[in-house]
Amino acid sequence: MELLLDAVFLVNRSGTLVYVSPACEAILGYSSQELMGRSMIDFVAKEDRDRTIEESKLVMAGRPRIGFENRYIHKDGHYVHIMWSARWSEEHGMRIGVARDVSARKRAEALQRATYSISEAAHDAADIRSLCKAVHDTLGTLFPIDAIVVATCDAELRVWDKAYQYRDSTEVPLLDWTQAESLSTHATNAQEPLWQLIETVPDTDPTTDAVHVRTEPLSLDALHDGVEAARHALAVLPMHTARRAVGTLMIYGPVKALQAEAAQRLLAFVCDQTALAIERKQLIDDLYKAARFDELTGLPNRRTFGEFASEAVRRAQRTNGKLALLFADIDGFKDVNDSLGHATGDLLLKEIGRRMKAGVTDCGFVARHSGDEFVAIVQDAEIVERIDFAVNRLRAEIERAISVNDASLTVRVSVGVAVFPDDGESMSELIRVADQRMYANKAARKSGGASFLERLM
Prior knowledge:
- By secondary structure, the protein is α+β, with helices and mostly antiparallel strands.
- The protein has three domains: 7-101, Beta-Lactamase (2-Layer Sandwich); 105-292, 2-Layer Sandwich (Beta-Lactamase), CATH 3.30.450; 302-456, 2-Layer Sandwich (Alpha-Beta Plaits), CATH 3.30.70.
- 43% of the residues lie in helices and 27% in strands.
- It contains 15 helices and 17 strands.
- The chain has helices at 23-28, 32-35, 49-60, 103-124, 128-140, 177-190, 255-259, 261-292, 302-319, 333-340, 342-360, 381-385, 387-398, 427-447, 452-456, and strands at residues 7-12, 17-20, 65-73, 79-89, 94-101, 147-153, 160-167, 194-202, 211-217, 232-240, 245-254, 323-330, 364-370, 373-378, 402-404, 407-409, 413-420.
- Strands 7-6-11-10-8-9 form a six-stranded antiparallel sheet. It has a five-stranded antiparallel sheet with strand order 2-1-5-4-3, sandwiched between helices.
- A hairpin with a 5-residue loop joins strand 3 (65-73) and strand 4 (79-89).
- The longest helix has 32 residues, at 261-292.
- The radius of gyration is 33 Å and the shape is elongated.
């Protein structure tokens, strides 16, 4: 029996290991002496413990079992997949189990599942966070993960965003975002994994309970220099596509589990697949934004405004509510482009859009209609009742001096207002009325006559 490549276990009624054959050391890394006298369930992956206990009950009830599979934790910290054949000896009060290491087969199957699940997530995930959660779930079935962070970056600006974060418990050391950004930048620039030993260190001040996170570089060679299996490492893995850097995958877990050859191959594969999926998601998001938002001001475009405004009118019809549509045009904007250049004109439009959004956001919705024209929906009933005063305040804010390229510019804005349902019961009617009143307002201001708003007052 001691020459068998499979390991033989004898377990008593209480779950204590009474005998373990020498083959166990090649499978789990523990010698027979290290295991005997200890509870078998302590070495089972925590996610598999409940069903392992249920399986043990079936065996002790007298039902021989063949082919049950679960995961054990190797002395180094990585998962080992075991297939069991077991029976109960009532005469000896022992459960006899033969354990076969099927990790190689499981790794091959896991790679196939990872390929499928990540591809599926890339297709089905509603956003990047959902994609990252699917990647986390996939990796969590392959080796222990105490914490994971996915950071995405703007390849040109190198601005980092936290797309996803998880940690198993509050006892797991957590880098602050500044540290995470710094390590991500380092790994991305080097285009190779960055390994750090990481641990919490209590504050030296005995009057506080504060803790700090300390990191130190870890090289692959350190594993052969006696790094304890119990220590944990942070692996910062850069994610690149053929076109650009996409982000980093940061995983915190047992050093030897993460740096096992099989784990590194799998992580490299996952990083490649995740990078492509994130890039596709970002391109889709960019296309969506380009289709629905104005590139210059960042405001919703005419199409998006039309959808929102039509829904606002339908809602007002159902509730017998009121709303106001504002149509604003910058007077003489062409002269700004002709005299100061289009770059200055663009800066001016961006600032006007920002001011208009700030003035309306709390009570409505602003969009860039076209060129130097902006539109807004005001839904607050009290403001609609006093829309003349609201528009005058908005106009005063827009017409404040604007600093552009060290020059101080002032503009005038013509505004037309249409109120639902007084001036129309459809969005097309409201836009037509507001547009007419805006041009009437512009003409009246040029001639010095009373504007529409002034006549309202």
